[in-house]
Amino acid sequence: MARIRRGATTISGIVAIDKPLHSTSHDVVNRIRFLTGEGRVGHAGTLDPLATGLLLVCIGPATRLSHYLIKHDKVYQARISFGSATTTDDAEGEVIASSPVPDVVSDELAASSFLMALSGEHEQLPPAFSAIKKNGQVAYKQARKGEQPELEPRRILIREALLEAIGNQYWDVRFTVSAGTYIRALARDIGQALGTCAHLGSLRRVRCGNSDIAQAFKMDQLDERVERCFIDPVDSLGFPVVSLDGSQKDQVRSGKALCWERLRTDRDRQMQRYSYQGIEGELFSVVADNELLAIYRRDSEATILLPDIVLSGGVRGVR
């Protein structure tokens, strides 16, 4: 296969993919690189090979949007399997411990109450088999050599945990969580809290911020016409929208500040941001002629908008 060159095309957009079981997120990225001939392709949040579901893939200049997309909340459908622990905290690892499953696991009322009580902030220890780097060492590479990586707990937010189905040795749970949450680690810790062992039996991501699995394409639905699969980048980002006319494009493309009082904000396209807050001021999607031109932020005086990023050539798919 010919080497894919960076910036080899004019394609720029976001595709929602329903990642199949056992494929890696990088497999999906490589497939889209091959189909488009574009080297600038990346995803907005890894899914493990065991997981299926929503994977947002950014192409061309749109890869710069992954910085925002990756920080959105995620929604997962997870099966927690009780009675055994594994090296990886999921079904792909070797079983390293077994324990009797207490009766509370099959008690629907108790299970629902337990999950409801999880809502809120927690300190979570990431799995040993993770891509976290510390002191130049990747955790999963250390774990594969039998070493115990020194990982530090991370603060996460569980917005909601709903019981969808229950069996004698499993729970099917719908989790809404902050970015960076490991569902594998949640399964592990829930088992420990109930006095047994547990691991993640299966996982499906069904939402990322404003993007939903219903928008996603199967891998076998993709062909060279990837652009027909673009989702609306403005909807995906969920930032309020500033609509400009074509005469103002050059001002944005050159990265100039915009006067807040003179701008027309498209009230019909105002999106309530799902979970991401800008570090400095409020963020806005700046659009013109059905293209996303840039992300701007309002300054502390709320008088002008300053460029956060300017997207060379724009990102297509704005409805």
Give an account of the 3D structure:
- The protein is an alpha+beta fold.
- It folds into three domains: 13-71 and 210-231, Pseudouridine synthase; 74-208, Pseudouridine synthase (2-Layer Sandwich); 234-316, PUA domain (Archaeosine Trna-guanine Transglycosylase, Chain: A, domain 4, Roll), CATH 2.30.130.
- It has helices at 25-36, 66-69, 108-116, 139-144, 183-193, 233-237, 249-253; strands at residues 13-19, 41-43, 51-59, 74-82, 84-86, 95-98, 120-124, 133-134, 137-138, 154-166, 170-177, 198-208, 211-212, 230-231, 241-243, 258-259, 264-265, 283-288, 291-298, 304-316.
- Strands 1, 2, 3, 4, 7, 10, 11, 12, 13 and 14 form a ten-stranded mixed sheet that branches.
- The radius of gyration is 22 Å and the shape is elongated.
- 40% of the residues are buried.
- Mean pLDDT is 88; it is low at 267-274.
